[in-house]
Predict the 3D structure of the following.
Amino acid sequence: MTTDSEAVIQYHNRTKHQLNAYAKGPESLDWDDQPNPFRRFNGCETVKLPMPGAELDCLFGDLDKPEQIAAQTLNLKNLGLLLELSFGLSAWKQFGPDRWALRCNPSSGNLHPTEAYLLCTDAALLEPGVYHYVSHDHALERRARFDAGDSQPELYIGLSSIHWREAWKYGERAFRYCQHDIGHALSTLSYAAACLGWTIELLSEASDAEIAHWLGLDRNDDFVVHEHEAPDLFCRLHTGPQAMAGLASDRLSQTLQSAQWFGKADKLCGRHFYRWPVIDEVSGQAQKPATAAERWQEPFFELPKPSHNLAASRLIRQRRSAQHFNGKAEPLPLADFQRILSALLPNAKPPFTAWNWPPQVHLFIFVHRVAGLEPGLYLLPRDSQAVPALKQACSADFAWQAVEAPFDFYCLTPGNVRQAAKTLSCHQPIASDSAFSLGMLARFADNVETAPWHYRRLFWECGLIGQILYLEAEAAGVRGTGIGCFFDDAVHGVLGLKDNTWQSLYHFTVGVPLEDGRLQSLPAYEHLK
Ligand SMILES: Cc1cc2nc3c(=O)[nH]c(=O)nc-3n(C[C@H](O)[C@H](O)[C@H](O)COP(=O)(O)O)c2cc1C
């Protein structure tokens, strides 16, 4: 009998890209039948949110000390801002006859498998019920109405994934990308809340079955076959100084008993030509049960101010993925590099205030162009205690030369690592033409063997880190791009790793972007005017 942990590890192994073969995916794509990136439920009442686009006073650097940001009033305008800055549109791009939307949250292939829901028991804000956020329309669809009785006025936010959206293009590996996207989405939510002086509490004790029930995702008849949504995360929004209160799941389930549900999900795609059953299988095997509440208190440490300290809301809206980098640009100033890396270490600031576990992911960094730093392969442990285990697992040839920096930082091997970085990231020049690129090395076997759902949690942590990199890159006047495509075991080979104690789960690159002048950029919400 294969255990769920073993099955999840088998999924991981079979979805590795190898230098001589990519993980299984579609042989051809019918672009006219790409899944609709905007889900709508037919037959629900719609609540339009006030026009998006308002700029907030708080600067990006202010988010380093979130407790000093004055809390905004909880009203529909500010709730709309929270949703816009987390999951809303940030621009439209046009190339010839093709037009596509970008959002504040990034997504592998811009396919956007993540859906966001509100569960509101605060009658002064919204009629108590469950709402689905439609980013295109900046509106809420009322999926359910219930009697909140004498419940505390609360606002919860749930996240789910439509695996099919991502699998349509990426086949079997897509489940990984959906988890990355959830990590990015949790991170965007945490940053957006902080801009408003609010906090996100991740209620990680909830089981997937509970989240599915509360959000109506287990109402199979409301969804088209193969286009169902898998539950991922459930959070509480704190708009005042109340303490993190944990989850009263029985009370919530009881409140939902009086729910009256509305609407059916639109069909996203004309046909499902290819099927990837392994995704439903791993989704079942990596399901999260109810668990004891875990809260991990991050230490606080002071960060230097970012060099482009813009209004946080502006910086969040201007975040983009670079498609190309200028390989001949001036090196990234050391102070910017150090600020970016410091921001990745657990700290009492967003997005870590919405994260409940100690760091499991460390970074190996291909330094190409950073002022005052020799090019080479480096390691940034996000927890110093992991260093002995990392040293033992990695190649004995590495120097582990301590580098003078405000944090623990090691040079493993100096030299030009551009070609290696590019080859390992599926031959993508974005990994070599940047200032630096990196891989995220997760403590793997231990975590997945302890609980199969930790597989997803490791990818969420990588997505969380990726979103910090995206925003910190903008705050340093440069740009980042997530890299989901890399040759897994070739990466492990370069690091000298011999087994699956550690696995690289996500790559990222940061540098001076080259704009594609052929693309036209249009405002996000002109169509609502
Ligand atoms: C998990 C993840 C993996 C990604 N992988 C790649 C990649 O391998 N190569 C690439 O060029 N872009 C990659 N991207 C960038 C996406 O294509 C980009 O986020 C998407 O097109 C939306 O554009 P935006 O980030 O500018 O909003 C990735 C993004 C995410 C979130």
The chain has a mean pLDDT of 97.
